Prior knowledge:
The structure holds 2 protein chains of 2 kinds. Chain A is α/β, with parallel strands linked by helices. Helix content of chain A is 51%, strand content 16%. In chain A, the strands form 2 sheets. A 10-stranded mixed beta sheet of chain A has the order 3-4-5-2-1-6-11-8-12-7, sandwiched between helices. In chain A, helix 8 (273-287) packs parallel to helix 9 (310-330), helix 9 packs across helix 10 (341-356) and helix 11 packs across helix 13 (417-445). Chain A is globular and about 75 Å long. Chain B is mainly α. Helix content of chain B is 67%, strand content 0%. Chain B has helices at 2-52, 60-66, 69-83, 86-98, 100-110, 115-128, 138-147, 152-165, 168-180, 187-195, 201-210, 217-230, 239-242, 249-261, 268-273, 283-292, 299-308, 314-326, 334-338. The longest helix of chain B has 51 residues, at 2-52. Chain B is elongated and about 95 Å long. At the A-B interface, helix 1, strand 4, helix 5, helix 7 and helix 12 of A face helix 1, helix 3, helix 6 and helix 8 of B.
Amino acid sequence: MMQTIFTILGIFFALYMFGYATFIMVGNLFALWRLHRNLVRKNMKNQIDGNISVPVSVLVPAYNEAETILSTIDNLLAADFQTYEIVVIDDGSTDETAKLVLEKYPLTRNTTPFQNVVKSAPIKEVYTGTVENRLITLIRKKNGGNKADALNAGINVAKYPYFVAMDGDEILQADALKNAARNFLEDEKVIAVGGLIRVSNNVTFRKGYPLETRMSKNPVISTQRLEYNRAFMASRVFSDMFNGNLNISGGFGMFKKGPVIQVGGYDSNSVGEDMDLVMRLHHYHLSENIPYAMRYAPDAVCWTQVPFTIKDLGKQRARWHRGLIQSMWSHKNFFLNFRYGSVSLISFMYYFLYEFMSPFIELFGFLFIVLALITQTLNWPFALLLVGIYGLFNIINTVIFYTSNFLIGDFQMYKGDTLRVLGFSLVDILVIRPYLFLIRVYATITYRSRLHSWGKLTRSKMEESSENT
Amino acid sequence: MDGFLSIIYWMILVYIGLSLIVLFFILTYKQLMLRKLKNQEKRQDSWRKFFEQKNPLLLQEDVERLKNTEELLYFTKVLQTLNQQPQKEESIQEFIYSHVDTWVELGNYYSNQSLIMRAYFAWGCKEAGIRQLNNNSEMIQLMQRYALFPSIYCRNNALGALYSFGNVDGVIKTYQALSEQKVTFNARLVAAGLADFTGDKRALADVLYDNFSDFGLDFQVGIIDFFRKNGGHLKHQLADMLKDPSLNIELVCALMRYYGKHPVQEVKPIILSWMSWKYRYQWEIIAVTASTLASYPGEDTVELLKKCLQSDNWFIRKNAAVSLEILNEEVPQLEAVLSEEHPETIDQLTYDLASKEPV
């Protein structure tokens, strides 16, 4: 009996690992092919671009972002894009975020009424001004508890029919808006476009473009850099092929305002507001049989600061995991629902098995191994071999995605980068992933008690190059 | 179970093998791309040599080549370059006319490809500069079909091709089809596109006017803007539109701009009626009318413009001041208003999607 149970469980875990490896393999192959085709077609797109563009409101929610808000705005002013405005939403900051913005840019108080099309906490003041022919708006509002509320306030004040949601500690690459907006012009069904998030720690910038992109010596930062590569370039590009992206990162997403308003804007109670919005958009359009598309633009790049201490990384990932649990539970109607097609059967099931259920399955797997060892039913040399080649498979694919960054634009490989990638991949497998597994278990256990707890993450100023033109 | 695990083990080894092959390709990609780039120059050269022939003729194998996007890219680049050389233009036009069936065949092929490829094909047709096609030409029907695809790039390029064909009927029927399907299109793009029309613009203006009610609002506004430069002869006919007090605000503004450029004194009372109190919440109408009145001197004009100088709205004040200056009126606060800087305000910018009803 015990033997049978062990056999069944062993097969289950082996299939679980194999399923993940298959998803990675298939996803990678399709993604790389797609990126290659995108590179070839970029030439075509540059030809037919003409002067057509869409006007965009860039929403920058900011809560205590005094360290980074001014460089974020300055970089936005350098964006290579025809028509856009910058809307900074100071979400009741207790630091000098608003003061710094008002001191640096010539903004004056504006009392023009606007329409509250989506719910948000009360807006106290609005300031506007023009810098380099760009309208900058600063909204000062009562803290709504999370980013979703701030974004809703931004949507209410924004003047254009398209908006970008980003974070206050990011640098939008100068061509990001243009590369994202093209997708709306290419296909009228497109209602949202996600961009590529890259790690800005240890990167210097000049006029909205990265100058030096060396890998950091800090393993916490570098392992995240590799992880972002894998997640964005593989999974998102692959999911894009069947309109199955379940998440347009809150770090950079461009949306048509109409459909977002149609589904009620961001949910102020949601911790994972980005995923929640995307799933509601999927649900609405699939239920109403409205043709739509949500695209992923790997050449629309946004650079973000990632936590550089293991503790802060844990805080961030715990919050993300709680947000994921909340979103998955709120949209449980996507579970094996044939009506929703590949969005449900591939994307949602992948998230369900390998994100939502992973703390349980991995914990159970760990206990299973311990029990199997104790009862001497585990062929441990073979098990070690299997784990070893599985780890090797992961490392090779991490190297593939790091080295294929040039498929999405200018990318520099520095001397020693390949060795560093190999080294940090090992650190990722042996240290970071087990740590994050524990964090996910912790986040699941403390889901109810700490759902809306944000925690304070340490920030650093972003590095600007002092080189002359 | 060992057997099963062995299968998994070997599958993962296969995956590792595949991954290593992919990694090899990635590492040699740049070299492969460099070789492809050299090859690209050769392929582009082969099309240049093709056009150097006395009577170049596209064979079926060439047509099959052109069903590859990259080949189409090289071909169109060469065609575009040659089209810009005056001494080559005539021979290129002859070449294009003699291959209309081929373009249609390619067009039908690309109409089943991705939207970006369709947009590119339409762009190629626009750049080819085909002129003077007759009403029944399949090229016109092809571009009409392309204009209806759900892509702004594709639509804009297909319309661009239709404008370059110079066929009035082609443009009208496309606008009607788009309007019937309630497709919106930027009015400025409409006006700019019509300005690029290579055929008889006056004839185009007349037919656009005759079929005006068939078009959606965006097209109507763009058409009125086109009339401003190429429809001066319609100034008496268009006045009837301005008499309708329920006319859409954007059309009113477009017509006001038209009558600013083509003043008709008989229309002045209608223009003045739009400065009435009942339009006080539609500041755009007041502002544009204030600008238009510069072409309609008279005491009544001056009185109304002086009132506008007291407006809360910067645009109304500014336009009225500029008009008074053009009319050489001396008003005490004129200098002050003229020297006002553009306010840092969003009073003109509250973009209310809810008010944008579908046509």
